[in-house]
Specification:
Trna Endonuclease, Chain: A, domain 1, alpha/beta, Rossmann fold, 21 helices, 465 residues
Length: 465
């Protein structure tokens, strides 16, 4: 299958493959984002050794699986291993007999292999430090969806793996442009607004997109995925969080609380909403959710307190339309599109869409080469979707509006933006030019209210570039 996008990641993999020294590389990203597919397709499944951890497997099951892979890649006459040091010793034997100039070792779903008291990480340390790092022909790639485990056990390791990684590759969800390419490759030729709506429900997650049927409309596909009698993604939410976190109950409490607040919550507000205690456990849960790509932290302009915001499109969609809803009629999604809940969700998700396509917004504004800081702004006097503070003493005040027709300015809209400009100017307290920018799905109708106020526009089409 053709690799869609991933140009930067492919360039890095080519460099690492041809570096002429041993490399220890971590590939990470949200579950279902296409990490394994990219590695397998790039290397054409030509590995010196490859194994995938077993979800919820015991220590004995993980070792048996590792041994089975050793046999599959050519190690004969081997007795079953009872510990990881012996298993990695057998891997060294296998690799020493391999005649390839570059020996690619791919350990997929690494966090699943590290069962309780298994000493798996200690054995991995020994394999790399005592043997692989001293050679010039090993490319060790470790991968997993539980990014929090990888960061804790590999990146922040204080033992033998401290500073041993030679490179990290984060696999992000597709952009709108990449989703369009992916769908076209599957024979799905939707208009940009339909692709955007699909993105706002599923995000740029290849696994979900691959479930879409070319024979169905977007509404029919949404019903097939979520609302029919036996929907394809019926248990996805529970499976997703359970596969990433050993005790996912607290993580779900947090994202549920965040789903109800579009601008996010402070730590104290999360404690109040979830009933969780303020301590290391909460810190770890928040860090794990951020490392896995479900939430982000940011500081509102002029504020020191961190705000936690839910950014995973699928999770937002789940809590808006699926959670606690048990009864549906025929053509559910078509009927949903006539509700106020749908309109509210569109507005919220379009804001998230803009945040995930900040490079495209900067390109449309012609400020790719200008140093910038992007953030939200919330105060008792105003709420701004996106503020871009530029190195050329210009501040873009961005308003995101999702409508099916060109957005029409009213006197109230103009008054609201002028108020936000005043509040922003008072907050920044520097001599800067505040320039309003409208980011719309279908353009802006020019009238007496907008003509002297809005001079820069970004449309949905610009986000596809």
């Amino acid at each position: 299958m053709k690799i869609i996008g991933r140009n930067a990641e492919i360039s890095e993999l080519e460099r690492l493959r041809d570096s002429g020294r041993s490399e220890f590389v971590m590939v990470y990203g949200r579950r279902r984002v296409g990490k394994t597919f990219l590695i397998r397709e790039f290397f054409h499944n030509e590995f010196a050794f490859q194994v995938t951890g077993i979800a919820c497997g015991t220590r004995q099951e993980q070792l048996f699986n590792f041994d089975a892979s050793l046999v599959r890649y050519g190690l004969d006459g081997m007795k079953p291993h009872s510990n990881w040091l012996d298993a990695f010793g057998a891997l060294i034997t296998l690799l020493e007999h391999n005649q390839s100039k570059r020996k690619v070792v791919f350990l997929d779903e690494l966090p699943w292999m590290d069962t309780a008291k298994s000493d798996f990480v200690k054995a991995l340390e020994w394999f790399w430090n005592s043997w692989a790092s001293a050679r010039d022909d090993i490319l060790l790639i470790v991968c997993g969806s539980a990014a929090s485990w990888l960061v804790k056990k590999i990146v922040r390791n204080h033992g033998g793996l401290h500073n041993r990684l030679t490179f990290r590759i984060k696999i992000n969800p597709f952009t709108l442009n990449e989703v369009q390419q992916f769908l076209m490759n599957r024979g799905i030729l939707w208009e940009e607004d339909m692709i955007a709506e699909c993105y706002m429900a599923l995000g740029g997650i290849p696994y979900y997109l691959d479930l879409l049927s070319p024979a169905l409309s977007l509404a029919q596909n949404m019903d097939a995925l979520f609302f029919n009698e036996s929907p394809l993604l019926e248990t996805e939410f529970q499976d997703l969080y359970a596969s990433l976190f050993k005790s996912s109950g607290d993580h779900i409490k947090i994202v549920k609380a965040l789903s109800a607040k579009r601008q996010g919550l402070t730590r104290n507000q999360i404690i109040e909403a979830t009933g969780m205690s303020n301590g290391g456990s909460l810190t770890n849960r928040l860090d794990e959710l951020e490392q896995c790509g479900f939430i982000r932290t940011y500081r509102s302009l002029g504020e020191a307190t961190e705000i936690y915001q839910l950014i995973d499109f699928y999770t937002i969609f789940f809590f808006t339309f699926i959670h606690n809803k048990k009864f549906y009629d025929d053509d559910t999604w078509m009927h949903m599109m006539e509700t106020s809940a749908y309109n509210t969700w569109c507005g919220l998700s379009f804001e998230r869409l803009c945040l995930t396509h900040l490079p495209q917004i900067k390109r449309s504004l012609g400020i790719e080469g200008v140093s910038t800081q992007a953030m939200g702004f919330t105060s008792s006097k105003a709420q701004i979707d996106l503020v871009i503070i530029r190195g050329d003493k210009v501040v873009n005040l961005c308003e995101a509006k999702y409508t099916r027709r060109p957005f029409t300015f009213t006197s109230a809209t103009a008054a609201s933006i002028r108020n936000k400009m005043d509040v922003l100017r008072d907050t920044i307290k520097k001599r800067v030019l505040i320039q309003p920018v409208m980011i719309t799905a279908n353009g802006l109708t020019t009238n007496q209210h907008s003509i002297n106020l809005i001079h820069r526009q970004v449309t949905l089409h610009d986000l596809f570039k």
